[in-house]
Design brief:
The protein contains 24 helices and 19 strands. It has 598 residues and is α/β, with parallel strands linked by helices.
């Protein structure tokens, strides 16, 4: 008899979702019901070799309008790992209520050969009829969700027109009761203090410093379930929002205007008008990226992880653009000094770094290998590097924002280095680009390849106005040892050799060495000592260099031009920039006022 070929097992994963956490403590809840129904259906399909996987994919308290859910993420990872053949749900809207998200999920299912089955609708995606019905049902599901959102928005607008608080966390200075917003007198005093300091100091920073100096903190509050909300210091963002919030003058912010509120105001109308006028006078024109030729906004970060924002200043009526680190809350808490760089200089520096990288065949080949390019194709693309650098240099400045937003994933600026992260797939396209049209990226290709290459450049790009390029401390006689005269003599000899080169540029290296009375290799080593880091030279003059650094070591060590590498090679400790933590908070708060908020 011929062998009967048994069908292969179809591993089924049950996905269940519940929008809220209500009644989850019960032994039998909605998630349990969904799983039981799906498990029974899988058993009925045993003749198709369906088996239920033991893993549980349950999302409790997760909305269907987004696919960012813990259990769904685990399910997608298992699908990519090839351990799931069928996804079974009770209803289509348990998976998602968004048509766009559903199309993306079905595309992923098809890519990995996974079927999707809905129990209550009795169809699956293995045939065209099931796909059509599924799209129709999901369209109505999304329509229902949008109708619910419209009703909620209409209700919120109506409550605001009648002067009622529309819900959510109460603003600072108020608490929610059954009669609406009620003033919390302790926090209301802090609000009045903030407005007073803002009007007295004339700036948001003056108000923030006064708040920090007084040590103002929020009051411990309790949620409706009795859970306490811990007291915390008022941040700069909280101070800014308080000053600009019309809730404190008795108004409710609507969608198009402010409405008279039913709650009690905390400040007077005169104080609010004065604060509003002062705020309006301090508004700076926000530069729009499309109105400038600067291409780094959205791509530039500092090495602390803070995004650097394009800002504008006016000096004698002329605009000046620069990049500055964002004033994040953790940065204020740790007293991190913000980075600052001239926008035009930094843009030119990045373009120069990229063109230099394209002309360096060795580094370009290393970058292309991250994309899996080898052999003849690698050689052909590497040849195009110099031509690609020329085309990039000739690109009009108005086209650079679009080019760099596609080519570069991220640019990081540090104290002594610059890192440029390239998208390898767009780097390959740039080398094949002929320059006849505007270079535009293909975002649909970015999901197909996450290959990237990081270019590190040793450069000091932070503006010297806010952060000195050279930070040389004064000599401390108490901690300094007697200087090594042989090292000092070597430095002086190197400077004499450098002066000889500068004064007689018409002579060759051999002529300079003969005039100096040494060999050409010896003379070249002396000249290179003039490119030592200034703090290394200062340490030699002060006698604070490492004990292992001798005249012979300094002369014979092959010195790199990178200052940070020089310190490592010669045994110096890593250089750390000292940040002055001393802050000036303007006029001190009187003891009577400070005691009220201490």
């Amino acid at each position: 008899m011929p062998d009967i070929q048994m069908p292969s097992l179809r591993r089924c994963a049950i996905y269940a979702r519940k929008s809220s956490n209500h009644r989850l403590e019960l032994e039998v809840n909605s998630l349990h019901t969904q799983r039981e129904t799906c498990a029974a259906y899988i058993k009925s399909q045993r003749y198709k070799s369906w088996v239920e996987l033991p893993q549980r994919y349950d999302d409790a308290g997760q909305t269907g309008s987004s696919i960012d859910r813990p259990a769904l993420s685990r399910l997608m990872r298992d699908i990519e790992a090839g351990v799931v053949d069928v996804v079974v749900v009770y209803k289509v809207d348990r998976l998602t209520r968004s048509l766009n998200d559903f199309v993306r999920l079905i595309e992923i299912f098809d890519r990995y050969g996974v079927s999707f089955v809905s129990i209550s609708q009795s169809f699956d995606t293995s045939d065209s009829m099931g796909r059509m019905i599924l799209n129709l049902l999901l369209t109505f599901s999304q329509f229902e969700r949008e109708m619910i959102a419209d009703r909620i928005r209409d209700s919120v607008r109506t409550r605001k027109r009648h002067g009622h608080w529309s819900g959510g966390l109460p603003p600072f200075g108020y608490e929610i009761t059954e009669h609406g917003l009620q003033v919390v007198e302790e926090e209301a005093e802090m609000v009045r203090f903030i407005f007073f300091e803002f009007l007295r100091g004339g700036s948001y920073m003056a108000a923030k410093r006064a708040v920090q100096s007084a040590g103002l903190r929020t009051v411990v509050k309790f949620t409706r379930k009795g859970v306490p909300r811990a007291s915390r210091p008022l941040s700069a963002g909280s101070v800014y929002n308080i000053i600009r919030n019309p809730i404190y003058v008795g108004e409710i912010t609507g969608h198009d205007r402010n409405y008279p509120g039913k709650h009690e105001p905390i400040i007077s109308r005169e104080t609010w008008k004065a604060a509003t006028a002062l705020s309006a006078s301090r508004v700076k024109p926000a530069p729009q990226r499309k109105q400038t030729n600067h291409f780094l906004p959205g791509l530039l970060w500092d090495d602390c992880g803070r995004p650097m924002i394009l800002r504008i200043e006016r000096w004698k009526g002329c605009p000046s653009f620069h990049y500055a680190s964002s004033n994040t809350y953790w940065s204020q808490h740790e007293r991190r000094r913000p980075y600052r760089a001239n926008a035009r200089y930094l843009d030119n520096l990045v373009v120069a770094c990229v063109t230099d990288f394209l002309g360096d065949r060795q580094r370009l080949r290393t970058a292309l290998k991250t994309l899996g390019v080898y052999g003849a194709e690698l050689d052909q693309l590497a040849i195009q590097g110099v031509a690609g650098a020329d085309r990039l240099t000739a690109t009009p400045v108005e086209h650079l924002p679009e080019l760099f937003s596609a080519l570069v994933l991220r640019v990081e600026i540090g104290q002594e280095h610059l890192w440029i992260t390239f998208r390898s797939v767009e780097l390959r396209r740039l080398l094949l680009w002929k320059g006849s049209t505007v270079f535009r990226g293909r975002p649909r290709d970015w999901t197909c390849s996450d290959a990237k290459y990081v270019l590190e450049v040793a450069v000091r790009a932070i503006s010297a106005e806010r952060w000195p390029v050279l930070d040389i401390a004064a000599r401390d006689p108490a901690t300094s040892a007697p200087p090594d005269l042989k090292l000092i003599e070597l430095i002086e000899t190197a400077r004499k050799a450098q002066r000889l080169v500068e004064e007689h540029r018409e002579q060759s290296l051999e002529d300079h060495a003969t005039a100096f009375g040494c060999r050409p290799s010896h003379f070249a080593r002396l000249v290179k000592l003039n490119y030592l880091s200034p703090d290394i030279v200062t340490a030699i003059l002060d006698g604070t260099q490492p004990q292992t650094l001798t005249r012979e070591t300094l002369f014979k060590t092959p010195l790199p031009l990178d200052w940070s590498l020089q310190r490592k090679v010669l045994g110096f400790p890593a250089r750390h920039h000292k940040i002055n933590l001393k802050r000036t908070y303007g006029q001190p708060v009187t003891s009577a006022v400070a005691s009220r908020w201490s």
